[in-house]
């Protein structure tokens, strides 16, 4: 058995403070990029990144996070969670510094992948340190306080990004992570003992390589389809097939291990497996619709980054209110009676983007975002708590790894598919407005609505900018419809998986 180091109350509170600072930093980073996407797409103010490059800038972080996180906990058991935590902070800060001064979209994508590696090291170690530091009733209270950091990061991220983009260059949204990570690293070094488990889980290098390679190949094929506007090409379906084969190999390897870091057997359990698939489909929709929303507010509607950040606050406030509300309603009725209708409402709110346009009043957009955040919060919190608590204690770590990996996988595939649908539909919709324009102008306008607006301003063709806005809104409507369908399927999976036995 591992020896629990009893820390003084004051020191435990300081440890909790350090952990919350790190958690807020990670949640901030997850939200500030969505506010910065429109700026990064601008050839003048940003990098002139195309939709595919922005999908990779968002997805590279999530890919590294999803592929490494389930192995990082096992590393912490061997070398100590403080050591892994500190290494993660250093890697995250280094990736943030690189991203801030990236000289092009390719460098930004690589830097975001490095930041994902840092987050993958930080997150399991952060949770392990929390569990080691607190026991009994104090642990429950600490977890409750710690969980508020996600809401703080979600609410503050868009506003902070809007302020930084309004006063500084785009790299400032990444540079802000560096001093925060430095302070957290100092706090970890002074306050946190190097907790390590006496029962060491085996490392899983084969699973790690297969999962990352499979996800990268799959996502590459999905994003490539949007760049070439076709699914029949070999450079589209080939990587998709390779990715699926590698992921199947990953499952086979994990099934052969006695103590796998990612245990596919857990997915055979009806409640745990179905609930996690439903959450993965929900996160698919959330990631895709968030990607659309960034370009809709700042590009089509012309909001400043600060205005767009403030406009997104209702989503975070809704999620903050939805989690405790959902928990109370579950205690009164049942998880199925609360989560299935809430997820259906979340799907409909995503589909609601199919009815907004260039003249939609802001108040209706805010209502849509509030309902979306509220319904999502009512699903994720209660369902996650039920899935983990339904497992035996000895399977809690493996269950957490499965849950987090599926969530990140759903998010990265949502960005890839959502962005690809938007690109294909946009290119088809803008084509009729390009007749008579010079070839280079046509090529640039086909890339994205952002590129079309930029070239329209350069050649004094406001009609092209209006056509780009209309094409983008049409693409968003089509994409929102498909996203809503996927989320409704997730609600159906939840309905079946949470049914009562017999």
Automatic annotation (TrEMBL):
It is a multi-pass membrane protein. Its main location: membrane. PROSITE patterns: MFS. It is found in: Cell membrane. The chain crosses the membrane at residues 14-36, 56-76, 83-101, 113-134, 141-163, 169-193, 205-224, 236-257, 277-297, 309-330, 337-356, 362-388, 409-430, 479-498. Residues 15-502 form the Major facilitator superfamily (MFS) profile domain. This is MFS transporter. It comes from Kribbella ginsengisoli.
